[in-house]
Every structure is written in structure tokens, then in C-alpha cells.
């Protein structure tokens, strides 16, 4: 039994190896890209539109709305990063219904990579919004004494992001493996359904936390409400 | 080791690539399509608002024009009604005038027709009365009556001055006229006896000689039924008549004259052309039994006066 899909290695050449995490990630990338290209190849700007376009529009507008609700006033600027986080984690969880599939998010390497991306993206967006000085000053708020705590918070929340997602996804897969060994009928199906729900919740949590971090980093000196302006 | 750092790097790269891919093929097209649709909807709504505003304006304009039209229509209708009333009154007056004129004309024509019928009936009655009178008198006439009439004729001839003078003037009225032997014609209904003829010749010669007129004329005697009973003497367009026919003629003329005068006096509205007549010469002499007339178609006198 594998703790992580990293352990399933298809090909290796020294340091370079092609494990299941990378392969399934490529698979997900291919699925998302091809379906996006296929659906958006004949987009309609009119009132009438296809069902798939309607589905994508619902997803995109829902993400945009969530970003705005958290307090980012220009959601289109952040949707590329935050939306992809949500979609990748959500699709990776949804695909667990496919037999033989290992969710890449069940690998700590993947979740660490995503958390690292958030870890880098937050200061980038913050600096872009407030400037370097303004962003750095945010570490000193409300007082300089808080600087170490802010720095610890910055690292720890990134670690928490990675471990939380990895723990949830890995535990789901582990429970499924154990249940399949103990009660091979019915119960694993229920657990799989529960795992889908857990995966969606985790995707939402990962996405919303990243959004909150970026929102906190991009907020200027004046406090801004988190509520969206409908 | 749960974390494979190569995998971490690869997944980071994979994630960044996926971000770019989805940004390029998913978010941008979808968001662009949404923006495009929103712009179109906004434009449509703006157009609808503009059209609504125009429609409201046009509706107000229409309502205003409709009100004006209704007002004008009411005014025109009122004018038309008044004009029609006037026209109707005018036509009614004209029709009434025409009807009155026609009625008057019909009444006049009816009166004329009644008058004509009455005149015809009167004339026919008169003619019938006189025809019957003539017939009766003709049936009653006889030699004795004739002799008595000749006698009276000769007496009247001797006693009356004015007609006699007129009669004798006939012999000299036209100097160029030569009195021939048959220049005096005496006509009677029955053949006169020799005494009667001699008495007449005698008194004529006496009258002419008394009047200092040439007396070389002859007397011709004829009989005629036209006199019914009586005698007449004709000379040079003049005649002296003593006959029942003359009585009847005189009476007829008098009645005709009465008929002519009386309706004219009574009828003030219209003339009675159908029964109008002329004054009959000699009617003034109806009181006397002897009348003197001019004879247009006298065979003896070739020319009348």
C-alpha cells in the first residue's frame, strides 16, 4: 500500500523520475485544457449559448464572485491563479471515482508545491498592489513586536495549507484502501461519495484560504470590508 | 520521505503551466464572452429605454394630437350639423315654394278647365235652346203669320225714320255705284202675294222719292227658309229685317253678351278666353222689331261698307 502516488514510479533516470503524481497531474492538465479548448472554441456572446458554455460560465462567475466576496476588488486579475488552484484540487478529487486513479493532491509533494506557489504568490500580489515598502510594512503591523510572529505565521500557514490538503486526501485514499480490504462491497461506495464531498470541501478551503491570504497582503493601510459590493 | 523535491518542482511547474493554459483557454474567453453579452444586454436595455422614452413621447404626442383631432372633429361636426340644418331649411323652403306654385298652377288649371267645361255646357245648352226655338217657331210659321208680318213690316218701314234714312242713304252712299234693276232684294219665307209685293214697291218708291233719291231701281223678290218667318230687304250692303229669326238672333246675342259679361264680372282672378265674344252689331236694336245691318256677303251690293 502506497502512502503517496509519488511512490509509484513509471520511469526514472537518476534524480529525474516520472511518478504517478506527475503523470496524473499531466492527465488532469490535459483534461482541463482540452475540455476548455473544446468548449470555448465556439463561444457565443449572444443570449443563446451552449450548455457546456453555460456550465463553464457558472463555474467561472462563481469563482469570480467568491474572490470578490472575500475582498479582492479586481477578481479577473486573480482568477487565473486562484481559479486554477480550486479547479485543479476539485478535479483531482472528483477523478477519484475513476478506478486506478491516484489523486495528485494525495501527494505531499503536490500539496507542498501548491502551498509554495501560494507562499510566493501572496507577497508578489502584495508588492504589486502596495509596493515593496508597503508590503513589508504589513509585517510590522500592528507593531514591530509582531514581526517574528508574522513571519512564523507566513511559514506556518503555508505548511498548514500543504499538510491539511495532503492529510485529507491521503486519509481518504487510505481509508478507501483499508475498507476495500475489510468490506469490499457497498461501504466503499459510500465512503467514495463522502470522499468526493471531502475533496470538494478541501478544494474550497484551499482556494478560499489562498484568496484570504492574498486579500490580506494586497489590502492597503485602510481597513477594507471583506464583504463584496453587490 | 513523503516529500520528493523533484516532484515538488515538477508539480510547481505543472501548476504554473496549468495556470497559463486555463487563463488562455478558459477564463479569458469565458470572461470575454460574458463581458460581450453584458455589453450587448446593456446596449439592448439602453436601446429599449430609448425606445420606451420615444414611445412614451410618441404616445404623449399621439394623445395630444388625438385630443386636438377630437376637438376639431367636434367643431367640424357641429359646423356640418348647422350647415346641414341650414341647407335642409333652404331646400324645404324651396320645395314648399315649388309645391305651392305647383298647387296654385293645378288649382288655376282646374279652375280654367271647370270654366271651360261650364262654358262649353252653357254654349251647347244655348245652342240647343235656340235650335229648339228655331224648330218650334219654324213649325209654327205659316202664310197668315207671314202676311201679318209683311203688313207690320210695311207699317214700321213707314213710321221709323232713322233706319229708313240709313237705308235710303245706301242708294247714294257710293256715287260711282249705279243702281241696277235688281239692286233691291226683298226676301221672304213664303212667296209674297201680288198685293204684298205691290205694297212694298209702293212704299219703297215713296220713301226714295221723299228722300230725293233717284228712283230708277228695280225690286227682286226671293223666298228663303232662313228667316223662319218674316221679311227682309237688302240694298247696297244694307238690310232691313223683320223676322222671327232676327228675334231669335237678337236674343241669342243678348244671352251671349250676358254670358260674356257676367262671368268676367264675377271671376276676378282669371280671364275666360274660351267664352269671350264681341259685341254683336244690331243688338242695340233688339228692342225694335226692325234692325238694320251691314251685310258683308251681300250678293246685290258688291262691296260692303
Automatic annotation (TrEMBL), chain A:
GO molecular function: proton-transporting ATP synthase activity, rotational mechanism
Matches recorded under InterPro entries: Alt_ATP_synth_F0_Asu, ATP_syn_F0_a_bact/chloroplast, ATP_synth_F0_asu, ATP_synth_F0_asu_AS, F0_ATP_A_sf
Gene3D superfamilies according to UniProt: ATP synthase, F0 complex, subunit A (1.20.120.220)
GO biological process per UniProt: proton motive force-driven plasma membrane ATP synthesis
Keyword Glycosyltransferase carried by entry: no
Entry-linked CDD domains: ATP-synt_Fo_a_6
Record localization: Cell membrane; Membrane
Keyword annotations of the record: ATP synthesis, Cell membrane, CF(0), Hydrogen ion transport, Ion transport, Membrane, Transmembrane, Transmembrane helix, Transport
PROSITE patterns reported for this sequence: ATPASE_A
UniProt GO cellular component terms: plasma membrane; proton-transporting ATP synthase complex
Transmembrane intervals: 20-39, 78-101, 107-127, 165-187, 193-216
Primary localisation category: membrane
Alphabetical list of Pfam families matching this protein: ATP-synt_A
Family, per entry: Belongs to the ATPase A chain family.
Role: Key component of the proton channel; it plays a direct role in the translocation of protons across the membrane.
Name of the molecule in the record: ATP synthase subunit a
Highest classification ranks of the organism: Bacteria, Pseudomonadati, Pseudomonadota, Gammaproteobacteria, Oceanospirillales
Automatic annotation (TrEMBL), chain B:
GO function term, MF aspect, one: proton-transporting ATPase activity, rotational mechanism
Entry membrane topology: Single-pass membrane protein
InterPro entries, per the entry: Alt_ATP_synth_F0_bsu, ATP_synth_b/b'su_bac/chlpt, ATP_synthase_B_chain
Main localisation: membrane
Keywords: ATP synthesis, Cell membrane, CF(0), Coiled coil, Hydrogen ion transport, Ion transport, Membrane, Transmembrane, Transmembrane helix, Transport
Coiled coil: 52-127
GO cellular component: endomembrane system; plasma membrane; proton-transporting ATP synthase complex
Disordered as annotated region, ranges: 270-305
Compartments where found: Cell membrane; Endomembrane system
Keyword Transmembrane helix: yes
Compositionally skewed regions (Polar residues) per UniProt: 270-292
NCBIfam families (alphabetical): alt_F1F0_F0_B (TIGR03321)
Family affiliation: Belongs to the ATPase B chain family.
Function, in words: Component of the F(0) channel, it forms part of the peripheral stalk, linking F(1) to F(0). The b'-subunit is a diverged and duplicated form of b found in plants and photosynthetic bacteria. F(1)F(0) ATP synthase produces ATP from ADP in the presence of a proton or sodium gradient. F-type ATPases consist of two structural domains, F(1) containing the extramembraneous catalytic core and F(0) containing the membrane proton channel, linked together by a central stalk and a peripheral stalk. During catalysis, ATP synthesis in the catalytic domain of F(1) is coupled via a rotary mechanism of the central stalk subunits to proton translocation.
Subunit structure: F-type ATPases have 2 components, F(1) - the catalytic core - and F(0) - the membrane proton channel. F(1) has five subunits: alpha(3), beta(3), gamma(1), delta(1), epsilon(1). F(0) has three main subunits: a(1), b(2) and c(10-14). The alpha and beta chains form an alternating ring which encloses part of the gamma chain. F(1) is attached to F(0) by a central stalk formed by the gamma and epsilon chains, while a peripheral stalk is formed by the delta and b chains.
Protein name, per record: ATP synthase subunit b
Organism: Neptunomonas antarctica
Lineage: Bacteria, Pseudomonadati, Pseudomonadota, Gammaproteobacteria, Oceanospirillales
Amino acid at each position: 500500500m502506497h502512502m503517496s502516488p509519488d511512490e509509484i514510479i513509471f520511469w526514472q533516470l537518476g534524480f529525474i523520475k516520472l511518478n504517478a503524481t506527475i503523470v496524473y497531474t499531466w492527465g488532469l492538465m490535459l483534461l482541463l485544457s482540452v475540455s476548455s479548448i473544446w468548449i470555448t472554441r465556439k463561444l457565443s456572446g449572444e443570449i443563446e449559448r451552449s450548455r457546456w458554455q453555460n456550465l463553464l460560465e457558472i463555474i467561472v462567475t462563481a469563482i469570480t464572485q467568491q474572490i470578490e466576496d472575500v475582498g479582492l476588488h479586481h477578481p479577473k486579475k486573480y482568477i487565473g491563479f486562484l481559479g486554477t488552484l480550486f479547479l485543479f484540487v476539485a478535479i483531482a478529487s472528483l477523478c477519484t471515482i475513476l478506478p486506478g486513479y491516484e489523486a495528485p493532491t494525495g501527494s505531499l509533494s503536490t500539496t507542498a508545491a501548491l502551498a509554495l506557489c501560494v507562499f510566493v504568490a501572496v507577497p508578489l500580489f502584495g508588492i504589486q498592489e502596495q509596493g515593496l515598502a508597503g508590503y513589508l510594512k504589513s509585517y510590522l503591523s500592528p507593531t514591530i513586536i509582531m514581526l517574528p510572529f508574522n513571519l512564523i505565521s507566513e511559514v506556518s500557514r503555508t505548511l498548514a495549507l500543504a499538510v491539511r490538503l495532503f492529510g485529507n486526501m491521503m486519509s481518504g485514499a487510505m481509508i478507501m484502501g483499508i475498507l476495500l480490504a475489510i468490506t469490499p462491497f457497498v461501504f466503499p461506495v459510500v465512503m467514495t461519495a463522502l470522499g468526493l464531498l471531502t475533496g470538494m470541501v478541501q478544494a474550497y478551503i484551499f482556494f478560499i484560504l489562498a484568496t484570504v491570504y492574498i486579500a490580506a497582503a494586497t489590502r492597503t493601510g485602510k481597513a477594507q470590508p471583506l464583504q463584496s459590493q453587490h | 520521505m513523503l516529500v520528493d523535491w523533484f516532484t515538488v518542482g515538477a508539480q510547481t511547474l505543472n501548476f504554473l503551466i496549468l495556470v497559463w493554459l486555463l487563463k488562455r483557454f478558459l477564463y479569458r474567453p469565458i470572461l470575454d464572452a460574458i463581458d460581450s453579452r453584458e455589453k450587448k444586454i446593456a446596449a439592448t436595455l439602453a436601446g429599449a429605454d430609448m425606445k420606451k422614452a420615444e414611445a412614451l413621447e410618441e404616445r404623449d404626442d399621439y394623445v395630444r394630437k388625438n385630443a386636438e383631432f377630437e376637438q376639431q372633429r367636434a367643431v367640424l361636426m357641429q359646423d356640418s350639423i348647422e350647415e346641414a340644418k341650414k341647407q335642409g331649411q333652404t331646400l324645404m323652403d324651396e320645395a314648399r315654394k315649388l309645391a305651392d306654385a305647383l298647387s296654385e298652377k293645378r288649382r288655376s288649371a282646374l279652375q280654367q278647365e271647370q270654366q271651360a267645361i261650364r262654358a262649353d255646357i252653357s254654349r251647347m245648352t244655348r245652342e240647343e235652346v235656340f235650335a229648339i226655338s228655331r224648330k218650334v217657331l219654324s213649325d209654327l210659321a205659316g202664310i197668315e203669320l207671314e202676311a201679318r208680318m209683311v203688313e207690320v213690316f210695311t207699317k214700321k218701314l213707314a213710321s221709323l225714320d232713322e233706319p229708313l234714312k240709313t237705308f235710303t242713304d245706301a242708294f247714294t252712299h257710293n256715287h260711282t255705284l249705279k243702281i241696277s234693276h235688281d239692286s233691291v232684294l226683298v226676301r221672304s219665307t213664303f212667296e209674297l202675294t201680288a198685293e204684298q209685293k205691290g205694297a212694298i214697291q209702293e212704299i219703297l218708291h215713296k220713301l226714295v222719292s221723299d228722300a230725293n233719291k233717284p228712283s230708277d231701281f228695280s225690286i227682286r223678290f226671293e223666298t228663303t227658309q232662313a228667316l223662319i218667318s218674316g221679311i227682309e230687304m237688302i240694298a247696297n250692303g244694307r238690310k232691313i229685317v223683320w223676322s222671327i229669326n232676327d228675334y231669335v238672333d237678337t236674343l241669342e246675342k243678348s244671352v251671349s253678351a250676358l254670358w260674356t259679361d257676367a262671368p268676367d264680372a264675377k271671376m276676378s282672378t282669371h280671364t275666360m278666353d274660351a267664352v269671350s265674344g264681341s259685341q254683336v252689331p244690331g243688338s242695340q236694336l233688339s228692342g225694335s222689331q226692325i234692325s238694320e245691318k251691314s251685310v258683308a256677303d251681300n250678293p246685290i251690293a258688291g262691296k260692303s261698307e
